[in-house]
Amino acid sequence: MTAVAERPRLMKGNEAMADAAIEAGCDAYFGYPITPQAELLERMARRMPELGRVFVQAESEVGAINMALGAAATGAKVLVSTSSPGMSLMAEAMSYMAGSELPIVLINVMRGGPGLGSIGPSQSDYFQATKGHGHGDYRVPVLAPSSISEAVALVADSFELAARYRTPVILLADGIQGQAMEPVMPTFRMPDWDTASWELTGADGREPRVVKSLHLRPEDLEVHNAHLQAKFATITEREVRWAGEQLEDAEVVVVAYGTAARVARTAIERARADGLHVGLFRPITLWPFPSKALAELAPRLRAIVVVELSAGQMVEDVRLAVERVPVFFHGRTGGMVPTPSEVVDRLRVAWALTAPTP
Amino acid sequence: MTTPRNALVPGGAADQGPASTTPSGDSRRLIYGHPSLLAERPTHYCPGCGHGIIHRLIAELLDELHLGPTTIGVASVGCSVFAYDYLGIDFVESPHGRAPAVATGVRRTRPDAFVFTYQGDGDLAAIGTAEIIHAAARGERISVVFVNNGIYGMTGGQMAPTTLLGQHTTSSPEGRDSSLAGYPIPITEMLALLPGVSYAARGSIADPSQIGKTKVMLRRAFEDQLGGGRTSIVEILSTCPVGWGMTPQESMDHVANEVVGVYPLGVLVDRRAAAAKGA
Ligand SMILES: Cc1ncc(C[n+]2csc(CCOP(=O)(O)OP(=O)(O)O)c2C)c(N)n1
Ligand code: SF4
Ligand SMILES: [Mg+2]
Each residue of B236-259: pLDDT tens digit? Predict the structure, then answer.
């Protein structure tokens, strides 16, 4: 079901993501104020009660994510949003929800870390989102938009993935995406959502159901883990997403996501104007990482330049994906954003250092 | 669920549990039965542990109030994490201490369900303090069964915030010393101050008469929720003979003689009853 609004609207990222969740049929939102995602919570505070849906400002991110856990167990379509320090507090329940196979969508509007860090935009929660948060053997899909319109589309897609695989899904944005305003074509969508076979309703006329992550006998937990791993393998097989730009003749490729990909796009235009054949490889799913696509592209390349708003996190996945191609890195941290000129400089270095010997 | 195991006695008066006559129509009345929602299997609890008794009280009440089909239980982390193995209702497991937040999510998205948490004292009065205080401050329409055995049973008998002064535990080997570890926390009294708490009471399972009184409190708490009340909580002074280094009988006596001195029994607040009286 797709409802297309008549014309583009100028929207702030946080508010656009809130509206996208509402249009996707979000039943319940739980959150705690933190910059730079507070407008998302504020938007939900106004709109959800108007629509007769659930909004709770929790006592902490621990409270918010556990309310989400309880609501998800009843089959509700749940959204939670936060920024980096709050994400750290949500780690425990993320692990429980992965273990209990509960679908929720969590938006992390990343800011600079570690610690209280800064409120500037950052991508330094990549490790946390793709490999970390809570304890135990699990992964959750991580989607990274690079524009507000894309964020709107990915909110609906996140709900769809969450229900299809009974898993938490993280939408990983950054402070610029949360705060900036852009013309958005709000192509809102109501994704499929079917939880009837496992949701808790009260055991009226059926066997009681238990939503849990505890399997005290190691033999049982190993079986459960095998089931989860099979699910992760299916997601890796089917749900990888990435976008390529100007890859046809590219000899050096920038790998970047989110805001870094937008900076890279400008840098690529400039480098091309100087005659450098460069392109952009933009992962949209950070987990599952588009390793295979990158590996297929790599043999044609002289070099890869990874650009991140971090000290270098995704670059590790890029290095794992490709063989024999030199991988360069450029990143800024703390809430600072790489400039297009910095990226052009890095592209020139990569270009020069990997020039074929005559 | 398995078939209830019932006790039929000739002509007995039934003031507890469902009353019925036998199919053959004789005049014996059922005064004590196996609650239909309580699984017929031995529990994993130690001999003399209070959790089994409290599970039974809950099962009886859910039967009596016909709540089985609409209840969603919220399990916590502690020895009672397996409550869902013994109670035949829908259940969701929470991380340690987070049951009141989980119950908030359940309550808000299932307005018609009967929702209760079952939490130990380590769970509710230590790691989960923020969650219970704020669920109560919001006045979430949930019932909280708070089983206070003054110790961390599941992890091997360490000191809890509820541990009595002088009590020996594996992490207060010389006895709880207030200069090092502060004082027992009267959290139910603290909660009773909040306007969002419509019913708060403390009972015990030290002897059959106390068990009966505790059941009355639980019933009142459950009815409070059903009648549109806000948060209701019943703290139940329970036993952990293993953690306390006592026999089952000694542990029951300890509750009756020592623990109640620190945690007095009774109803702490009953706002709806008070309002009805005032009206
Ligand atoms: C985050 C976290 N910390 C610690 C534990 C270990 N743990 C399990 S149960 C428990 C204490 C339980 O005590 P209580 O709530 O009083 O329940 P009881 O076993 O006494 O009934 C602890 C500390 C845990 N499971 N999770
Ligand atoms: S350790 Fe204590 S609380 Fe746990 S089952 Fe044994 S007696 Fe009960
Ligand atoms: Mg205890």
Answer: 999 999 999 999 999 999 999 999
Residue B248 CA to ligand 1 center (angstroms) comes to: 22
Task: Name which of B204, B237, B223 is nearest B276 in CA terms.
Answer: B223
The yes-or-no verdict on residue A54 having pLDDT over 80 is yes
Which of B76, B79, B238 maximizes ligand 2 atoms within 8 Å of its Cβ, making it the mutation to test the pocket?
Answer: B79
Domain locations along chain B: 45-278
Angstrom distance (rounded) from CA B143 to CA B125: 16
State the ipTM, two decimals: 0.95
Q: If phi over 0 gives left and psi between -120 and 50 gives alpha, with beta otherwise, what is residue B226?
A: alpha
Structural domain harbouring A129 = 9-238
B231 touches A at CB < 8 Å: no
Residue A204 predicted with pLDDT over 70: yes
What is the distance in angstroms between the Cα of A207 and the nearest Cα belonging to chain B?
8
CATH number at residue A264: 3.40.50.920
8 A C-beta contact, residue A109 and residue A92: no
Q: Which of A238, A263, A279 is at the close of a domain?
A: A238
- Final residue in a domain of this structure, among A214, A238, A262: A238
C-beta atoms of A74 and B109 within 8 A: yes
In a domain, A358, yes or no: no
Q: Which of B72, B102, B104 sits opposite A202 (nearest CB)?
A: B72
In a domain, A78, yes or no: yes
Choose the closest CB to A208 out of B89, B105, B131. Answer: B89
Judged against a pLDDT cut of 90, whether residue B136 lies above it is answered with yes
pLDDT in tens, A140-154: 999 999 999 999 999
Spatial separation of the C-alpha atoms in residues A218 and A4, rounded to whole Å? 50
Tokens standing for residue B114: 């009967």
Q: Give the predicted TM-score (pTM) of the model.
A: 0.94
Answer for the pair A80, A105: CB distance below 8 angstroms, yes or no. yes
**Cβ contacts of residue B239 below 8 Å, gap of 6+?**
B48, B49, B50, B149, B205, B248, B251, B252, B254, B255
- Token couple for A112: 């600079």
pLDDT over 70 at A222, yes or no: yes
For B45-278, the fitting CATH number among 3.90.650.10, 3.40.50.970, 3.60.20.10, 3.90.550.10 is 3.40.50.970
A to B CB pairs, distance under 8 Å: 139
Is A1 within the bounds of a domain? no
pLDDT digits (tens, 9 = 90+) for A271-297: 999 999 999 999 999 999 999 999 999
Of A71, A96, A214, the CB nearest to B81: A214
Residue nearest to atom 8 of ligand 2 (CA): B49
Residue A2 lies in a domain: no
Pair A153, A13 in one domain: yes
| Cα–Cα distance measured from residue B181 to residue B170, given in angstroms and rounded to the nearest whole number | 14
Q: B160 CB under 6 A from ligand 1?
A: yes
Residues of B in Cβ contact (< 8 Å) with A202: 68-72, 89-90, 110, 113-114
- Is B130 in contact with A63 (Cβ distance < 8 A)? yes
Instruction: Report the atom number in ligand 1 closest to the C-alpha of B152.
Output: 13
